[in-house]
Specification:
The protein has about 425 residues and is α/β, with parallel strands linked by helices. The protein has helices at about 70-75, 105-115, 120-135, 145-155, 175-200, 200-215, 230, 245-250, 265-275, 280-285, 300-305, 315-320, 335-340, 345-355, 365-370, 390-395, 415, 420-430, and strands spanning about 5, 10-20, 30-40, 50-55, 80-85, 140-145, 160-165, 255-260, 260-265, 375-380, 400-405. The chain folds into two domains: about 5-175 and about 365-430, Alpha/Beta hydrolase fold, catalytic domain (Rossmann fold); about 175-355, no CATH class. The strands form two sheets. A nine-stranded mixed β-sheet has the order 1-2-3-5-4-6-7-10-11, with helices on both faces. It has a two-stranded antiparallel ribbon with strand order 8-9.
Length: about 425
């Protein structure tokens, strides 16, 4: 049963699908997928080609936009768009601290979550495509982790694709998580250095906040323990177009005077809580490192281990000298499952996922080398989240892929660039530019 409703300039239709939890066992347990169909209100009855949008993540539901902003407005000029909540996210069958205990204990939960990687998402897409398009191939737009999924799509089921468009999401085909993070920490340091160059006073503000957290036990309103490592992780925003400005506004009025002395303000703590909590996207923390697992090597809390190879990120050492405090970026650490109440009950589950040694390959280099699907990718110069060198090496592997390499945008160019990014990529993939 579907339900349609209107927003300015668009008609939206809720779509629900039932798919196997494990596509290798089609007669076994099933889960539900939710997707939102979007069409321009003046094209409702037209026979339009389909564009499937795969959100970044992992673990985030599709955008909840109003009307036809940015890239969506450009897409709706010629497509009927399907915004998929990937399995476990958004309005699809949820996977979080409240629902995972239905599976049993940590071992059963970890076994369940091994079915939530890109290969399963691709097979979900193929399972619903016949119902959505009548069997016709569709154009797929993948942002960030969505681009990882598109690369898996090209490897596993290219017959389902009319065109593939990737923004900020060309993965390494063979890098272990350790390789990914060894490349990431120097990029993160460059972003922090650039932030302090833009906002010089923030260097001292960050040191003052970190020093306070080293000497005080700070618990946020939702029960989150705000440690210095958690504070440093706010640097994840520096990989987005407006992130440096958002971080600056957070830091500039962090302290307030009280009868008991200077302390962190309620406004600062509230903003930090909103930025740090994984309550809305716990899968991001649970399966993040597994997206780099492709063989018998465990990920084994890779970001935490590799961070130790970069002592300049140690807050205590920085504060003991005169070095700037370095923020961190897109990485998941064991302490998050101690600090965040949305993750605490899932720590043992996360440990079991980190220890797995049976990950299967997500990409097929031979099939990618023989690719016949028109494919294009935006590669953002010095992208904080996805290593540019890794992306370009993969681009050379995929037959026929055209790249647009730009430093005009950060990782979220598809969001901040309005219709220009998608317009440029569609022109490239059609040989019109």
């Amino acid at each position: 049963m579907t339900h349609s409703y209107r927003q300015p300039g668009v008609v939206l239709t809720d779509r629900r699908f039932t798919v196997p939890l494990d596509h290798d066992r089609p007669g076994g347990e099933t889960i539900e997928l939710y997707a939102r169909e979007v069409v321009a209100s003046d094209k409702t009855h037209q026979d339009l080609p389909w564009l499937l949008y795969l959100q970044g993540g992992p673990g985030f539901g599709a955008d909840r936009s109003v009307g036809r902003p940015g890239w969506l407005g450009r897409a709706l000029k010629e497509y009927r768009v399907l915004l998929l909540d990937q399995r476990g996210t958004g309005h699809s069958t949820p996977a979080n601290r409240q629902t995972l205990p239905l599976r049993g204990g940590p071992a059963e939960q970890a076994g369940y979550l091994r079915h939530f990687r890109a290969d399963a998402i691709v097979r979900d897409c193929e399972a619903i495509r016949a119902e959505v398009t009548g069997g016709a191939p569709w154009t797929v737009l993948g942002q960030s982790f969505g681009g990882f999924c598109v690369t898996s799509y090209l490897s596993l089921a290219p017959e389902g694709l009319a065109t593939a468009v990737i923004t900020g999401g060309l993965p390494s085909l063979d890098a272990h998580a350790d390789d990914v993070y060894r490349a990431a920490f120097p990029r993160i340091e460059r972003k922090v250095t650039a932030h302090y160059a833009r906002y010089p006073l923030d260097a001292e503000r960050a040191r003052r906040i970190a020093d306070h957290l080293l000497h005080h036990d700070v618990v946020l309103a939702n029960g989150y323990r705000l440690t210095v490592e958690a504070f440093q992780s706010l640097g994840i925003v520096l990989g987005t177009g407006d992130g440096t400005h958002r971080l600056h506004y957070l830091l500039e009025n962090a302290f307030v005077r009280t009868p008991q002395g200077s302390t962190l303000s309620d406004a600062f703590l509230e903003q930090a809580q909103a930025m740090l909590s994984y309550a809305r996207h716990p899968l991001y923390a649970l399966i993040h490192e597994s997206i780099y697992g492709q063989d018998a090597r465990p990920t084994a809390w890779s970001a935490e281990r590799v961070r130790a190879e970069f002592p300049q990120f140690d807050a205590a050492k920085a504060l003991a000298g005169d070095e700037p405090l370095l923020f961190t970026g897109e990485s998941i650490h064991p302490w998050m499952f101690e600090c965040d109440p949305a993750l605490r009950p899932l720590r043992e589950t996360a440990d079991l996922l980190a220890a797995r040694t049976d990950w299967t390959p997500l990409y097929d280099p031979a099939r990618l080398a023989a690719n016949e699907v028109p494919v294009v990718a935006a590669v953002y110069h010095d992208d904080m989240y996805v290593d540019t060198a890794h992306s370009l090496r993969t681009a050379r592997t995929i037959r026929g892929l055209r790249t647009w390499i730009t430093d005009e945008f950060e990782h979220d160019g598809i969001r901040t660039g309005g219709p220009r990014v998608l317009d440029r990529l569609l022109a490239l993939v059609r040989d019109e530019a």
